[in-house]
Please model this.
Amino acid sequence: MHVSILSYARKRYLWVALIVCAASVLAYAWHEPLDVPSGGTWLGYTLGGVGAALILLLLAFGIRKRSYHSNLGKVQGWLSAHVYLGAALLIVVTLHAGLQFGWNVHTLAYVLMCAVIASGFFGVFAYLRYPHALSDNRSNLTREQMLEELASLDERCVRAAARIPGEYADVMVSNRDRTAIGGSAWRLLMGKDSSRVALPNGSEHLVANPEQGAVLEWLGDRLSRSTDGTLTQQIAELMSLVSTRQALLRRLLRDARIKAWLEIWLYFHVPLSFALLAALIAHVVSVFVYW
Model:
């Protein structure tokens, strides 16, 4: 799906975008205004109209993808046009402005348009790259199935620890209850593990336990001190379970990080699009009412 967005209908909308850009550049090169090129010339108004129409068409994609019974073309085609025509806006609107910028609402609209396009470029990159990474990381499992596997491992860890004399069971319960997958947006994007665990050290205290490091270190220390064959075997089996849990947690954290990167750009793209629409309206009103 993600590759065919760009190659939809033999890259039909790429060619449309290239034709629009080529026509804009040729018209700009041929045009000889009385003064410097600007949005106030007949070509400026023409390119401005084309740019405004493209922006409204691109904004209409948000309506089309939610209109499940619409006959106005496939959503895939709309998305392909959204990508290519959005990129074409950079050429059309830049030439519309005649490379004349300043501290005003017109330049604000231009800057917002560039920000929307930049966030859209990242969205294309994300949807070309991350779904494959997400699928590879999950290994044909859903996130719910991985969480079920984690719960099963937790039960096995607690049961195995309960057979060992001492504080092992309490440590495993604490490890289970204080494992943290997710958190703030920054932690999700960076894949940070904020898990903690209560380890006995004279008095019980919480320590950071990213990727099960603290628990495995504690178990390794107990294993090295063990002189009892049965106890050594039990601790080794528990360490094996915790190591398996560690690998699964890494996959879950990576899953959360990939999903966050897949979604985070929309938190910029959508609000910026509405801001662009408001700035476009202000731009048009100021041109036709106050100029």
Observations:
- The mean pLDDT is 91.
- The two ends are 47 Å apart (CA to CA).
- DSSP finds ten helices and two strands in the chain.
